[in-house]
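Researcher: Here's the sequence for the chain we discussed earlier.
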Amino acid sequence: MDLVCLQCRATADASHRFCGRCGAPLQARCPACLALLTPGSDFCTGCGHPLATGPVEPDAGREERRTISVLFVDLAGFTGIGERLDPEDLRQIQLAYFATASRVVRRYGGILEKYVGDAIMAVFGIPVESEHDAVRAVAAGLDIQREVDDRPLAGRYRMRVRVGVATGEALVDLAVTLAGKSRAGHVWLAEGLAGRVLLDDDTIPLTGRSHELDLISSALIRSVRESEPRLISVVGVHGVGKSRLIREVTRRLQATPEIIVRWRVGRCLPYNECGPYTALTHIVKAQADLRDTDDEATARRRLTGLLSEVVASADVDRLAELLGPLCGLPGRPVNPGEIESAWREVLIALARNMPTVLVVEDLHFADPAMLRFLTGLVESVGELPLIVLCTYRPELLEHEPAWAGGPPGTLTVSLGPLRGAAQRELTVGLLRQHGLPEVLTDRLCAITGGNPMYTVEYVRMLAEQAASGEVDPDVELTIPETVHGVIANRIDLLAGPQRMVLHAAAALGESVWPGAVAAMLGQPPEEVGRSLGALRSRDMLVAGTTSMVAGEPELKFRHQLLRDVAYGRLPRAARASLHRRAAAWLDRLAVTGRHDLVAAQARHRVAALALAEELGEDTTADALAARRTLLAAAEAAFAVYAVEPALAHLEQALTRWPPDADQAERLATELQRRRLEFLLDGDRFYREGGAKDLVRIAERMSDIGDRAGTARAETLLGQVELMRAEQDRAAEHLSRAVELYADLPDSAAKAEALGELARLRLIQYRPVEAIAAARPARDLAERLGLTDATANAMTSMTMARYMNAEPAGLDQLERTVELCRAQRLPALRRAAHNLHVILLEEGELARAAEVAAESAGAHGGQVSLVVRHSADATWAYYTGDWIGLLHAADEFLDADDSETTEWDLQLRGRRAWIRTLCGEPAGADIERCRDSAARYGFARLRYNACAQGALYHAIRGEGPAAVALLDELAGVWRTGPTTLTVEWLSAIVHAAALVPEAAGIVAHVVDTVPHRTRWVDAAAAMAAGHWLDAAARYDEIGSVSDAVLATAWATRSGAADPAHLARVRAFAHRNRATGLLALARQP
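Model: Thanks. This is the structure I predict for it:
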């Protein structure tokens, strides 16, 4: 077991009863959990660890992974000397050498791990890790070299030592290798270690601390001018910039001519270098210019010289005798009272000689004697300008709460993390300084949480990476070792139970619930609650605003890095065990339908499986549990329309599927994966052969007799083919799905198949058949309580009624949209899309635009399919922005390998004739329109191909070709007129204006439109040759392009005045459509 001082946290030998650093009584701690032990106990009362001597099995639940610094020292040439010396002399050398090394290592807070021949190995970072461990190891190595060099071993043998230092989780062998390669008198450091001993970099601008800088500077100036003592404290967690702020204060006062101040800086250390008054020793050494390399005579001369300058000559020798031992000089033993009196006398003398600021850094490492001394010093000075300026971390107040009060006039400045603009300013400035991409700013701000030191270290790490190659902004960032050391130190200072709870919380995840932690540790909730409360008081955990688990308060880590370090210190076996217990606790909550909690359960199962695989354990049970929870998580995610997370869960499940598992379940999972891939990115799905794989899955399901699975696959295949306008294939698959479902029980999948068949009939412009297919889909969905499926079926029915020229269709669709809005159904995307189509037909462009935007942003809309079109190009046409239209058309139509753009033949045709008017080649678009319409056969595609193609040929003066296309359109029209004409009706009347031979064909179509709208009225005016009337109607609707074209035909016929021609000319110049201006002139 270890003995630990509760006052200064120094470690000691098992034989010691009092601390050799501060004199406080020592307490034993459990070697497993570091809990305090009752004398005579055989087992730890905190964790049950056996305390009896003899070999015991390690407690994996209490083990930790640690980053430590290892110091390895050996004597140069010892083997050769050992062969020549008498054994007794050799033993004397070893004893003297080991005693020196042991004393130095303990002085710096290290632990001697072992002696081997002439070598010693010491460890720094146990039981408390800190950011100073590497520095302590290096300093100890240097001091051992100095002491062995200065004093012959055993009084007569001069030896030299070799030193190696390495830091990491398991680098003992590396330290030995470095020591072996090191020459006598040298210290070799592992690669990367030197960077950890770099001091603060003041080239980095001070950001976000102007208020605090002004406050402290003003207080100091006032104290100097009014000759009054003052205690000023700057408190904040490590890395918020306490020391940097002090240095900026120093610079400001030094730049103030009327203020002359002596600045002396001392630092309290976490190890026993110079006793409890280390910081004061540093101050006096700096004032006297004492160096560690000075011999005794020089050191004494420098010390007495300092004292002679500030105290009476009669007091010099007395004070030198008292303070000399603390400065490394020999002297008589003295009691603490004498030492404190001597320090007070010297420091007051310094202040009397000149205004003095004593900067005491890291006061949280000081022992109580130092704190009492500083408080008493300020209180006893009187009217002298002596200012004590301290920095410390908040944990000081846990042991010394009275320090926050202090003597009258005490000023305490609290530094928090940088926020908002200040945090971004620092981050951007550092990135620019090192030539790093500023795109990293948001990511670094999120990671570092406003801690300047963390930000500096992350940027420094990235700069080192950039020196050897380009930095990837998306690469996973490791925690810099300096930051890791700071956070690890905070964890090590926790009591054993608190640290165990923190580790379990880290394994639990971002959200922490007391009940989960208690279940994971097998401890009473009351004890866990107390530990969580202590972690909150240390600002490691904070209360969440809400809780995902009913009846359980939710906590979160104050800083993500704290969680990462705590989790990283758990051994893999302990991590796996905690993950399994966390998953079991979540499973007991019966979280059906809770996407977030089921996902958390899956994450724990997957983590436990991965760890078991790394450890080489039997993974059968973990793999099965992981697969089941991943499938449940995918189902829960899809239930709330989270397509991407659901797909990720399924892909993880499939990668963990054993070859001998149930084939039907695997095929069902593969089918669902393909469905999610299709919903997520249809073009990518087609490009990567998703449709072919769906056919394979459907065939395999059919082969094993899975009719329901085959029907689901056929439904999905129907959707896949419909979205790329493959009419015949879509009809074949959907009809096959409905046929398979005919003798299967009612289900949501059956309702979906019926609904998709109704959608197909609707797109085929067969409204009666669409209603006939949608009605059973609606009835089945209502029976099963499927509100979204019901809304989809109602959308098809109401749209079909509008197509059938039934006045009630629009009102019924409006009610369906309201239902979707009220219940936030994914069907809102399709319902609103269809309402937008009807509103366009009715000539209500402004409202249509609003509804289209609502459709695009519908909640869960990703699972509701609509045919693709370019909304930007559509609205650019209506607003008369042809340049914008061509740009949008190019982006939409020319996407690589896109198979879902064929539905927008209106845009492809429009691009062709607008390009022609702009003097650009466009014939390929017209050929593509004709080919697509012929291949896919949908009436909508044929109308657009013929209408836009006719206008293209008319503009080019190719009258016969235009007439032929309009005649073909009229033939399609006679097979079944439709109310949906807005995409192409204007195009045919514009073509007829340029090709009089087609006037009769076009007039017949316009006259027989089943439902009269504002567009139809404008087209009728065009067909009658009333160009300006038509232009006015188009302006009233809001279609600038059609109005300008109608005006152009009016000027061409001589029926317009110069003002109309001016409008056409301005439009043509704005859109670079010189051909339009040519057509507008009389032939």
